[in-house]
Amino acid sequence: MILPIVGYGDPVLRKVGAEITPDYPNLKEIIANMYDTMYNAYGVGLAAPQIGLPIRLFVIDTEPFSDSENLSEEEQTLLKGFKKTFINAKMIIEEGEEWGFNEGCLSIPDVREDVYRNEKIILEYFDEEFNKITSSYDGLIARVIQHEYDHIEGILFTDKISTLKRTLIKKKLQNIMDGKARPDYKMRFCNKKSR
């Protein structure tokens, strides 16, 4: 089922997500709905706070990045096959040179900015079956994970840009809060007046 995506300004996007247990109510259904919602919005990642749940859960499928001409054949193959669910994720290490990439967010439609992140990470998490995994990632996969991980920490990509750039996009952010943004997917806006 496709759910509305929570828009910028909603307090749930600023909460640090709570850890969950295997008996969390309707967990399999929530995960399936998150994938449906992400695909419907042409996203590559979606975190539970973006559907209004302040829990440590996010899903990723990097296949849309796999057809980029700037990537090696090896990286294209990695991106094409990378679809994972992350539960109770904990960042162990962020290392390597920081590199910039133009990021966007389904909760912040029509806003894109260059964000600098470390090139390599080590992450500990549970998969859908609650198997504990510790794995290292780099490149675009690491970046998508870091972006979604920030969501479960109450951090948005706009927090990682300069004060000047934040000032320049202030009106766009206000329009999102007021429900004036018009993405081609369902959204829930925090200040929108019901008619």
Automatic annotation (TrEMBL):
<dbReference type="GO" id="GO:0042586">
    <property type="term" value="F:peptide deformylase activity"/>
</dbReference>
<feature type="active site">
    <location>
        <position position="148"/>
    </location>
</feature>
<dbReference type="GO" id="GO:0006412">
    <property type="term" value="P:translation"/>
</dbReference>
<feature type="binding site">
    <location>
        <position position="147"/>
    </location>
    <ligand>
        <name>Fe cation</name>
    </ligand>
</feature>
<protein>
    <recommendedName>
        <fullName>Peptide deformylase</fullName>
        <ecNumber>3.5.1.88</ecNumber>
    </recommendedName>
</protein>
<comment type="similarity">
    <text>Belongs to the polypeptide deformylase family.</text>
</comment>
<dbReference type="GO" id="GO:0046872">
    <property type="term" value="F:metal ion binding"/>
</dbReference>
<feature type="binding site">
    <location>
        <position position="105"/>
    </location>
    <ligand>
        <name>Fe cation</name>
    </ligand>
</feature>
<dbReference type="InterPro" id="IPR036821">
    <property type="entry name" value="Peptide_deformylase_sf"/>
</dbReference>
<comment type="function">
    <text>Removes the formyl group from the N-terminal Met of newly synthesized proteins. Requires at least a dipeptide for an efficient rate of reaction. N-terminal L-methionine is a prerequisite for activity but the enzyme has broad specificity at other positions.</text>
</comment>
<keyword id="KW-0408">Iron</keyword>
<keyword id="KW-0479">Metal-binding</keyword>
<feature type="binding site">
    <location>
        <position position="151"/>
    </location>
    <ligand>
        <name>Fe cation</name>
    </ligand>
</feature>
<keyword id="KW-0378">Hydrolase</keyword>
<keyword id="KW-0648">Protein biosynthesis</keyword>
<dbReference type="Pfam" id="PF01327">
    <property type="entry name" value="Pep_deformylase"/>
</dbReference>
<dbReference type="InterPro" id="IPR023635">
    <property type="entry name" value="Peptide_deformylase"/>
</dbReference>
